[in-house]
Amino acid sequence: MRDFAFTDQTTEVDVARVKTWLDRKEILLVDVRETSEYEQEHIAGAMLVPLSHFDAAAFPVLPGMRIVMHCAVGKRSEAARKMLAKEGHLNVLNMTGGLKGWKAAGFETEV
User: Fold this and answer.
1) Which of 27, 33, 77, 105 minimizes the number of CB atoms within 10 Å of its CB?
2) pTM (whole model) above 0.85
């Protein structure tokens, strides 16, 4: 976790950094797309928490763990990130470009 300086202003993280962190098991990657979207294609290791059922108040506190939110392009995941931040969660980031950006970078998905 030392390769990234997290500040109060940091809200976005690029797909390459997310891939590195995911490979190292340094993050919890949360997919906020709907179940049908996730079932069609998703990033291996991502936990599904659809935005339509998202409850920031009930989201577990994970001290010392970065949480990276993602969706198809980054809009829904940014909304979820803001909800978590409002509830006082720290180290929550939004993956820039979402699944579309992940695939554009040439990273694999599960179908």
Assistant:
1) 105
2) yes
93 token code pair:
């980031």
CB 65 within 8 A of CB 27: yes
User: How do the pLDDT tens digits run along the chain, 111 residues long?
Assistant: 445 544 455 689 999 999 999 999 999 999 999 999 999 999 999 999 999 999 998 988 888 889 999 999 989 999 999 999 898 888 899 999 999 999 999 999 998
Looking at this protein, which amino acid is placed at residue 63?
Answer: P
CA quadruple 2, 59, 23, 40: dihedral sign = negative
- At the fourth CATH level, the homologous superfamily of domain 1-50+67-111 is Rhodanese-like domain (3.40.250.10)
User: Can you say how many angstroms the Cα of residue 24 is from the centroid of all Cα atoms in its chain?
Assistant: 15
Pairing of strands 12-13, 92-95: parallel
